[in-house]
């Protein structure tokens, strides 16, 4: 029997998997033919058969019993439940943790993986991060880990050691000389685009508004890329502390920071402003800087694909916006993790997720 639809643009193993799925469903076969018999029957290579059968196995449509060499189809097969650990650098039970959990569950759903996450927070503490990883690694139910390291993480070598036992994929940060599969946002490319756009609008010096804490690798890459396109001055304010205090109806730190921000703009003669933190930029710059100063500056921010609200000043202004997709980040990372689990082969290199201009 020759395989149908050879002119299709779909790979041969996908065509074969679809035909086998239909055949097994219609005929209700229990004992399946060998790979070699299928290859001869459909006039394809053994490699194509192997990949097609792996697709059916991944969908829990067949079971492969290597000891007997038999392949069986059962409508009652329950998909294998996988459990993956996720370590993030934020505070436990914060809104960011909820967003992360939602994005990872959506990624598993999109990939049709019967998987659940076990989430741990490091609160940007390297020691806590290692402790979380040790506990997850010791859990026999954990099939692998996604780790978003804290800014100054010293656990690169430890994660590399863990990867010899369970799959480990790194998110949003990189370790020098540590060969682990990594997925990060391409902040360098975004930095170049933002710098060029500001320069094209006649800007000469840009204030880059950052938090008082240390920068991760992505933010360092962003600053270096912008600096190659336009003059920048870094203004650091306690952005995340301001946000927490404002939520508690305490605006003292906000008021002091807004005065400091205005003084910085005037002292450094900045004609434009950029921040990778859109919500914090809105609170401090749009909500605290005098209108006559703010309106004369060109503004740009980076935002996430998670819905956010903005002040009227922000909405009415012509703020340029670049968006990163957390969903794409987690889907890409989950794909690498699942492939590693299924193939027992470690993925290599860094996958860069590009940011998109949306305004």
Please explain how this structure is put together.
The chain is an alpha/beta fold and 359 residues long. It has three domains: 12-73, Orthogonal Bundle (Arc Repressor Mutant, subunit A); 82-180 and 327-353, Response regulator (Rossmann fold); 187-324, Rossmann fold (3-Layer(aba) Sandwich). 45% of the residues lie in helices and 19% in strands. It has helices at residues 12-27, 35-42, 46-58, 95-110, 126-138, 156-162, 187-200, 217-227, 239-247, 252-268, 278-288, 291-294, 312-316, 326-343, and strands spanning 62-65, 70-73, 82-88, 115-121, 144-147, 168-171, 182-185, 205-211, 231-237, 272-275, 298-304, 320-324, 350-353, 356-357. Helix 7 runs parallel beside helix 8 (217-227), helix 9 crosses helix 11 (278-288) and helix 10 (252-268) packs across helix 11 (278-288). The chain is elongated and about 80 Å long. The mean pLDDT is 88.
Describe how the helices and strands are arranged.
Blueprint lengths: L11 H16 L7 H8 L3 H13 L3 E4 L4 E4 L8 E7 L6 H16 L4 E7 L4 H13 L5 E4 L8 H7 L5 E4 L10 E4 L1 H14 L4 E7 L5 H11 L3 E7 L1 H9 L4 H17 L3 E4 L2 H11 L2 H4 L3 E7 L7 H5 L3 E5 L1 H18 L6 E4 L2 E2 L2
Parallel strand pairs: 3-4, 3-5, 5-6, 6-7, 7-13, 8-9, 8-10, 10-11, 11-12
Antiparallel strand pairs: 1-2, 12-14
Helix pairs in contact: 1-3, 2-3, 4-14, 7-8, 9-10, 9-11, 10-11
The CATH topology name of the largest domain reads Rossmann fold
Shape descriptor reads elongated
In whole angstroms, the N-to-C terminal distance is: 55 Å
Q: Major β-sheet, in short? A: 6 strands, parallel
The overall strand count is 14
Give the helix level as a range of percent. 40-55%
Average of pLDDT: 88
CATH H-level name of the largest domain... which superfamily? Response regulator
Tell me the radius of gyration. 25 Å
The percent range for strand residues is 15-25%
The sequence of SSEs as H and E is HHHEEEHEHEHEEHEHEHHEHHEHEHEE
How many distinct helices?
Answer: 14
The assigned CATH architecture of the largest domain is: 3-Layer(aba) Sandwich
Arrangement of strands in the largest sheet: 4-3-5-6-7-13
- Which stretches of 5+ consecutive residues score pLDDT under 50? none
Query: What's the domain count?
Result: 3
């Amino acid at each position: 029997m020759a395989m149908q639809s050879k002119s299709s643009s779909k790979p041969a193993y996908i065509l074969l998997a679809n035909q086998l799925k239909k055949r097994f469903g219609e005929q209700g076969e229990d004992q399946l033919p060998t790979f070699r018999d299928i290859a001869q029957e459909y006039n394809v290579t053994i490699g194509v058969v192997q990949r097609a059968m792996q697709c059916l196995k991944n969908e829990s449509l067949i079971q492969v019993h290597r000891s007997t060499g038999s392949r069986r189809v059962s409508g009652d097969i329950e998909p294998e439940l996988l459990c993956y650990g996720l370590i993030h650098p934020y505070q436990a039970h914060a809104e960011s943790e909820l967003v992360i959990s939602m994005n990872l569950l959506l990624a598993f759903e999109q990939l049709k993986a019967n998987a659940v996450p076990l989430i741990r927070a490091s609160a940007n503490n390297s020691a806590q991060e290692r402790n979380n990883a040790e506990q997850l690694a010791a859990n026999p139910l954990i099939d692998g880990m996604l780790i978003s390291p804290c800014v100054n993480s010293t656990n690169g070598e430890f994660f590399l050691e863990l990867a010899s036992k369970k799959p480990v994929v790194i998110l949003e940060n990189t370790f020098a000389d540590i060969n682990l599969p990594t997925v990060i946002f391409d902040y360098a490319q975004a930095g170049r685009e933002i710098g060029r756009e500001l320069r094209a609008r006649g800007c000469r010096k840009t204030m880059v508004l950052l938090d008082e804490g240390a920068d991760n690798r992505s933010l360092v890459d962003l600053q270096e890329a912008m600096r190659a396109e336009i003059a920048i001055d870094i203004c650091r304010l306690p952005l995340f502390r301001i946000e927490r205090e404002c939520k508690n109806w305490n605006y003292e730190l906000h008021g002091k920071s807004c005065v400091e921000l205005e003084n910085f703009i005037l002292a450094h003669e900045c004609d434009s402003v950029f921040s990778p933190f859109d919500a914090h930029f809105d609170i401090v710059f749009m909500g605290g800087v005098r209108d006559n100063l703010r309106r004369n500056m060109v503004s740009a921010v980076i935002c996430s694909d998670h819905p956010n609200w903005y002040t009227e000043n922000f909405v009415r202004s012509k703020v340029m916006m670049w968006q990163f997709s957390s969903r794409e980040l987690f889907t890409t990372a989950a794909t690498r993790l699942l492939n590693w689990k299924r193939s027992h082969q470690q993925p290599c290199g860094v996958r860069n997720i590009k940011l998109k201009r949306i305004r």
